[in-house]
Write a structure and sequence with these properties.
- It is built from 15 helices and 13 strands.
- The chain has 347 residues and is of the alpha/beta class.
- It folds into two domains: 106 residues, Rossmann fold; 228 residues, 3-Layer(aba) Sandwich (Rossmann fold), CATH 3.40.50.
Length: 347
């Protein structure tokens, strides 16, 4: 794959650009003169022209192309914009103020194809409703159907969805490794860093003390997930923190798991009031109880997406690291298959 091209003799500027590229996971081709840049000019995904060589480059009449930027460390120079036009650049990048934009441009160059995946959130109407189990089973079903799937554990006090799947010892990055990142995360780098089995990648918390997820980190992970996966499933806490709000704002659909009894529906109604402030499409998934699915849906005034069946042996099986069978003949498999199909078909 061709690499971004930098044209400059300014060592201080080059040092800044190398650091910015490293933040995007990119390596650069560097040309110290317009003549040396000519072979890469048309094939490089991004070209960054140092202000020091802009006039010399313009004199060679380079062919017009997209994604050319003029990099400067002195935007106060009124001639910078004239040189920007002369080299056919689309914008002036003022370093260090515009570093984040350049990080995103370099990251884009590394992942030209986008999957435009779907993001779905799952929230429990009350404690123990089964939201984490539904999240895990949705992800397992999707990955079993050969959809590249990312399961995101956003409940830092939930005990770890990796433990639910018996994967707490799996090697790979956890939230603690990602929360310091700012700006865009490369989708390929995220896939390579996370624990994975088959087509399922998992982002959970480490053991011990865990810090809240910064909203910017959640935003970066979900957007990378959208670009690199077919489906992203986020297991959210009932008490919405800023990171959960960030996830809800990006979700195509949010499933609220509610037990079909009076207290369960009342609790789910309280959670739903918070959800609807941040997400456009909320649907209830019921747990069996004394109320009918229709009564639960009518009380909450949202559509019923299905019923999560009781599975008495499921928790013990998961604790042993045994994944549930989600075949077409099982009630759980039918539910998850229907939900996954609805999510992906609607994208």
């Amino acid at each position: 794959m061709a690499r971004p091209l930098v044209i400059t003799e300014d060592q201080a500027l080059l040092d800044d650009l190398v650091r910015v590229a490293a933040a995007a996971g990119a390596q650069l081709d560097v040309a110290h003169s317009p003549a040396l840049a000519r072979p890469q000019w048309s094939v490089a995904p991004v070209v960054v022209v140092g202000d020091d060589l802009a006039e010399e480059l313009a004199a060679t009449g380079p062919p017009a192309r997209q994604r050319v930027f003029l990099a400067t460390r002195d935007l106060s120079d009124p001639g910078a914009w004239r040189r920007c036009v002369a080299v056919g650049a689309q914008a002036v990048i003022d370093l260090p103020d515009d570093e984040r934009r350049l990080v995103e441009e370099f990251a884009d160059a590394l992942e030209p194809a986008s999957r435009a995946g779907v993001i779905a959130c799952v929230v429990g109407g009350r404690g123990g409703a089964g939201a984490s189990v539904l999240s895990a089973c949705l992800a397992l079903k999707a990955s079993g159907d050969r959809l590249r799937t990312l399961l995101v554990d956003a409940d830092r006090l939930g005990g770890g969805i990796d433990a639910l799947l018996g994967r707490e010892e799996a090697a790979g990055a956890r939230w603690g490794d990602l929360t310091a990142r700012e700006g865009r995360i490369n989708a390929g780098a995220l896939q390579a860093a996370l624990p994975a089995f088959g087509d399922l990648a998992l982002l959970s918390f480490g053991r011990g003390e865990v810090a809240p997820i910064p909203p910017a980190a959640m935003r970066s992970v979900l957007e990378a997930g959208r670009r690199g996966f077919d489906l992203v499933v986020a297991d959210l806490p009932r008490h919405l923190d800023p990171a959960a709000v960030e996830a809800l704002a990006r979700a195509e659909t949010t499933f609220l798991v509610a037990t079909a009894d009076v207290r369960g529906v009342l609790a789910a109604g309280q959670v739903l009031r918070e959800l609807t402030r941040h997400t456009a499409d909320a649907r209830v998934v019921t747990r069996p109880g004394v109320l009918s699915d229709q009564a639960v849906a009518e009380t909450l005034a949202i559509p019923c997406a299905g019923r999560l069946p009781d599975h008495p042996r499921l928790p013990a099986a998961l604790n042993r690291g045994e994944l549930p069978r989600l075949g077409a003949r099982t009630a759980l498999g039918v539910l998850c298959g229907t939900l996954v199909h609805t999510l992906v078909a609607g994208s």
